[in-house]
Design goal:
The complex is a heterodimer of chains A (111) and B (860).
Chain A (H helix, E strand, L loop, with lengths): L3 H19 L3 E2 H11 L8 H14 L2 E7 L5 E7 L1 H28 L1
Antiparallel strand pairs in A: 1-3, 2-3
Helix pairs in contact in A: 1-3, 1-4
Chain B lengths: L7 H22 L4 H12 L2 H12 L3 H18 L1 H30 L10 E8 L11 H10 L3 E14 L6 E8 L3 H5 L5 E2 L14 E4 L1 H8 L9 E4 L2 E8 L13 E4 L16 E6 L5 H18 L1 H4 L2 E7 H6 L2 H33 L1 H9 L4 H28 L1 H8 L13 H26 L2 H4 L15 H33 L9 E6 L9 H16 L4 E7 L12 E4 L10 E2 L1 E5 L3 H5 L3 E4 L9 E6 H7 L9 E4 L8 E7 L14 E5 L8 E6 L7 H11 L5 E6 H8 L1 H35 L1 H9 L4 H32 L13 H27 L3 H7 L1
Parallel strand pairs in B: 3-8, 5-7, 15-20, 17-19
Antiparallel strand pairs in B: 1-9, 1-10, 2-3, 2-9, 4-7, 5-8, 6-7, 11-21, 11-22, 12-21, 13-14, 13-18, 16-19, 17-20, 18-19
Helix pairs in contact in B: 1-2, 1-3, 4-5, 4-14, 5-12, 5-14, 5-16, 6-9, 12-16, 12-18, 12-24, 14-16, 18-24, 18-26, 18-27, 24-26, 24-27, 25-28, 26-27
Classes of the chains: A alpha+beta (111), B alpha+beta (860).
Chain lengths: 111, 860
């Protein structure tokens, strides 16, 4: 049973994954690398969370997956954003910005 | 496209492997050795199997998908713990197998329509005489024809009667059973010959050509299944008959012994008497007509006939009963009792497994907690646990179905005369029923354990290692053991009562001596009854020559076999008036030859045995009759007549015989009248008292009869004791089966007790060890566990007695000489159960008492 805490994390992770995938078709390993690089090593996604998230997003129809050849010539499963996924990402980004703004406002006022 | 075809499992594997390999490469690029790089990657990646399991969870989209996954998990489960799986499978194979087996009999015998097209529209039509309670229900041919012509609710009405004949085409006469049928017989039954044709009108007229239809069995036995048999001539009882057709193998009507069917000429001069008693009548309802409608119609028809032919039709009433009822009748209650007991047995099996699963769920506690922490929903875990049980039940049911298909053979051995027994077999209905059993059993066994195992409070305690737990009492498991014991007590009580009945029955003195009696019949036709004198001479001649055979002590004939259930109890009247003129006289009536009482060793209380006399026929009455109707008067010399029977002249009472259980060993003697008449019909039962083994005399007597009656066949040659035993075949079948089920039940219940107590002992090993270390006596420990086992068994017994009261009420009509609450039987059952429970509890209790405290502390 997911607790509230992991729900929040999960939701955030889903948004991050969608955002990374929006940059172009990418495999699971690539996603974890990019999140790490872009966040300057602040965010490290555990494989135990990443893959369930990927499969969940695929099942919801936000991601599409197909097998292809990786940069080093291996078979890898590439994920790309579906049209519905793009809409979902936009919605989540808006939501996140509003939330961050609200949290920021509170932090400012309380200072 | 290529990749898509690979199965999901390989895809999951490939995806995760790619990730690990990429990490390994990155590590190598960072300067690690290949082995080290791979090791690090594996560590960083974490539990691959757990991730895969979770991905599988995510993937369980459609029901099909999740079912498949659950089936796989069931298979994994069976592989992981084969002995547990085997226990469950065998228990369920027994439970479901026994249940399906009895269901297959119930379905074939009671539920399915008779094996004729629209068999539920077939009715049996009877006539009854308002004035003479037990007058023959057989219908005169003219009345049958009237019914058929005047009714508006039947498609057709026909009828039959059977006769034992001898076929003399071969070198030796062979007994054949021939059904004489009224016109429209095959039309009513809705069956056509498999070969050849039905009778044509010429063959149904008096003086027309004589034709026969033959049964499939006879066709195969006599003609080796030769299609050219149609058209051949068969000599039956001295007359030639042309075979016009062969009936299909499935057509065994009126009974499974029938060999031939012949048409009765309704226009024959001897067939015009309205008082003759010939036919058992069958009719086929028109579609959509209900039984009450047809009954009303038939009643109207009969009252019209009553006005037209006041004598005898005004006194007659016509009735109808579905043909299935008359075929199946008595077996109904036996079968439902058996079904009740196998259902209890299945319940015990399920309870047993539920207890096993409960113990097991505690062991799998950790596994379930992990699945929860990985985010599996409770319902998916419950579903997984259920499908594990379902898988086991399915395998068990497969085995059980194999058992069930073998059942018809068991039924055939135990009760060969059970009606419709050849229709029992494997079919789709049985498979569906078994599947339904599987689903019910799964829910019964596994739902409660699964729900308990997935309780949040329980599963949340992932950190809590089970080894540090102190005793967790589990009242539910104990209760389940109690339930099993209670159900077993109910079954044992039922079986015990039936066994006691048999025992009491074995000690009953029937009032006649059945030992050393050989019985047989000699073929003869109803046509012979036209010359009663000649018939009597023939039978007397046969009796005389049998009496002359060395080794024969006495011989007689009787219309009915003594002690074999059969009853004909008409109303009688005393010509000179009885002791109480207002009282109706109803008595069992039998026809016996001179020497019957000496042969059967029934004592004469006054007067003399039947003997040849001139003048009115002799009559003997039994003591019950004399006490009931002739007390305070002289019986001998009075005259008796059967009310409403114009065929039977009044007889003179010549003696009083002792009471004998003529109508069944389990039936107390009833007032009985014996008419001294050796030839009441063409083939009475011969009863021969031999000096030695009666079966050993069979050949000698057969040869003797062949000498004097070369054209007649001798059949049903067997000792009277065999008949008496056959008469109890159904009774014996249900007793044997119920006893078997009851013993299985107590075996299962004691296994359940043993297993559950053993589980408690294991769970409380540390506690027990500590207590011993702290100075508890081993005897105390032993007593503690033993009393726990005995205590719950005793509670089960008490509950079981309540259950038994309900169950044995079903048996009330089947018991003899014991009441359903027979204290001896119930006490015996309780003692047996307690003894078995003590044995089952002893082994785990001893194990508990032997716990080595040092070892327990070391493990800690």
């Amino acid at each position: 049973m997911p607790t509230d805490k992991s729900d929040l994390l999960q939701g955030t992770l889903d948004m991050l994954v969608l955002k990374v995938v929006a940059l172009g078709p990418v495999h699971g390993y690539g996603i974890s690398q990019r999140i790490r690089q872009i966040s300057k090593e602040v965010l490290q996604v555990q494989q135990g969370s990443l893959y369930p998230a990927l499969h969940r997003l695929e099942k919801r129809g936000w991601l599409e997956a197909e097998w292809g050849e990786s940069e080093n010539g291996r078979e890898a499963r590439f994920y790309k954003l579906s049209a519905r996924g793009r809409k979902q990402l936009a919605a989540e980004e808006t939501n996140w910005r509003r939330l961050a703004e609200a949290v920021g406002l509170i932090l400012e006022t309380a200072r | 496209m290529f990749f898509r075809k690979r199965n999901r499992e390989t895809q999951l594997d490939a995806e995760l492997r790619f990730h690990i390999e990429s990490m390994t490469e990155a590590n190598i690029a960072a300067g690690m050795s290949p082995e080290e790089a791979r090791r690090q990657a594996m560590i960083e990646f974490g539990g691959r199997e757990q991730i895969k399991e979770e991905l599988r969870d995510v993937r369980r989209i459609a029901i099909v998908d999740s079912t498949l996954a659950n089936v796989k998990s069931a298979v994994r489960f069976m592989r992981k713990s084969p002995s547990f799986a085997l226990t469950v499978i065998l228990t369920l194979a027994l439970g479901i197998g026994a249940n399906s087996a009895v269901f297959s009999a119930i379905d074939a015998i009671l539920l399915r329509p008779l094996p004729f097209p629209n068999g539920d529209r077939l009715m049996r039509l009877d006539q009854s005489n308002r004035k003479a309670a037990a007058a023959a229900p057989f219908v005169a041919p003219v009345r049958l024809a009237d019914w058929d012509r005047m009714n508006s609710t039947f498609q057709a009405i026909s009828g039959y009667y059977e006769q034992n004949e001898s076929e003399t085409t071969g070198p030796f006469p062979e007994k054949l059973t021939r059904a004489f049928v009224a016109p429209r017989f095959l039309q009513v039954m809705g069956v056509a010959p498999a070969l050849g044709r039905d009778f044509i009108p010429d063959e149904e007229h008096f003086g027309g050509s004589s034709a026969v239809l033959i049964s499939d069995r006879f066709w195969r036995a006599r003609f080796n299944g030769d299609p050219n048999a149609v058209g051949r001539v068969l000599r039956v009882s001295g007359y030639s008959n042309t075979i016009v057709g062969v009936m299909p193998a499935s057509f065994r009507f009126p009974d499974r012994d029938v060999d031939l069917w012949s048409a009765v000429p309704f226009d024959a001069p001897y067939a015009q008497n309205r008082e003759s008693t010939w036919f058992i009548v069958v009719g086929r309802l028109k579609p959509g007509v209900s039984v009450p409608q047809a009954q009303a119609d038939l009643t109207t028809v009969q009252s019209r006939l009553g006005r037209e032919f006041p004598k005898p039709d005004a006194d007659l009433a016509a009735g109808i009963v579905p043909l299935k009822e008359t075929t199946v009748g008595g077996t109904r209650r036996s079968l439902w009792v058996l079904y009740g007991s196998v259902s209890l047995l299945l319940l015990i099996a399920c309870t047993n497994i539920a207890a096993l699963l409960l113990s097991r769920a505690t062991q799998r506690h950790h596994e379930i907690a992990i699945r929860f922490s990985l985010g599996a929903s409770r319902s998916s875990v419950v579903l997984q646990l259920l499908s594990e049980a379902f898988g086991l039940a399915l395998v068990g049911a497969g085995l059980g179905l194999a058992v069930a298909t073998g059942t018809s053979r068991v039924f055939r051995i135990l009760a060969k005369d059970l009606p419709r027994i050849e229709e029992i077999g494997l079919n789709w209905r049985l498979v569906f029923y078994t599947l339904a059993c599987v689903i019910a059993a799964t829910l019964l066994c596994a739902l409660v354990p699964a729900i308990r195992a997935t309780r949040r409070g329980l599963s949340g305690s992932l950190s809590q290692a089970s080894r540090t737990q102190v005793s967790s009492r589990n009242p539910l498991q104990l209760a389940l053991v109690g339930v099993q014991v209670a159900l077993a007590v109910a079954l044992l009580s039922g079986a015990g009562l039936l066994l006691r009945s048999f025992q009491v029955l074995g000690q009953v003195s029937p009032g006649f001596d059945a030992s050393h009696i050989l019985t047989f019949r000699i073929s003869g036709g109803y046509g012979e009854t036209a010359d009663m004198k000649g018939l009597k001479q023939r039978i007397d001649r046969t009796l005389d020559s049998v009496r002359a055979v060395p080794g024969v002590e006495a011989a007689a004939t009787s219309s009915d076999l003594p002690g074999v259930p059969d009853s004909y109890a008409p109303e009688l009247n005393l010509i000179e008036g009885g002791s109480d003129p207002a009282r109706k006289i109803v008595a069992e009536s039998r026809f016996v030859s001179p020497g019957y009482f000496a042969t059967m060793r029934i004592p004469m209380l006054s007067g003399e045995d039947c003997r040849e006399t001139a003048g009115p026929a002799g009559v003997l009455v039994n003591r019950s009759f004399a006490d009931a109707y002739l007390s305070g008067t002289t019986a001998i010399g009075r005259h008796l007549a059967e009310t409403g029977n114009s065929f039977l002249p009044p007889g003179e009472i010549r003696g009083i015989a002792g009471d004998a259980r003529e109508t069944g060993i389990n039936v107390a003697p009833v007032p009985t009248v014996y008419w001294c008449f050796s030839a009441p019909g063409p083939d009475p039962n011969f009863l021969v008292r031999t000096h030695g083994d009666p079966a050993g005399m069979a050949q000698t007597i057969r040869r003797k009869i062949h000498e004097i009656e070369p054209a007649r066949s001798v059949f049903d040659v067997m000792p009277l004791e065999q008949h008496l035993s056959d008469a109890f075949a159904e009774n014996r079948m249900r007793t044997i089966l119920l006893t078997f089920f009851a013993l299985t039940a107590i075996a299962l219940a004691s296994l359940g007790l043993y297993g559950t107590l053993g589980y408690f002992v294991t769970v409380r090993r540390r506690e027990t060890g500590l207590r011993i270390a702290l100075g508890a006596m081993r005897g105390e420990i032993l007593r503690h566990f033993l009393l726990q086992g005995l205590g719950i068994s005793l509670l089960g017994c008490i509950a079981g007695l309540g259950l038994a009261a309900a169950f044995t009420r079903m048996l009330s009509g089947m018991l003899y000489g014991v009441s359903p609450t027979d204290a001896t039987t119930l006490l015996g059952v309780i003692l047996l159960v307690i003894a078995v429970a003590a044995v089952a509890s002893l082994a785990p209790s001893i194990r508990a008492a032997r716990v080595d405290p040092m070892q327990v502390l070391r493990e800690e």
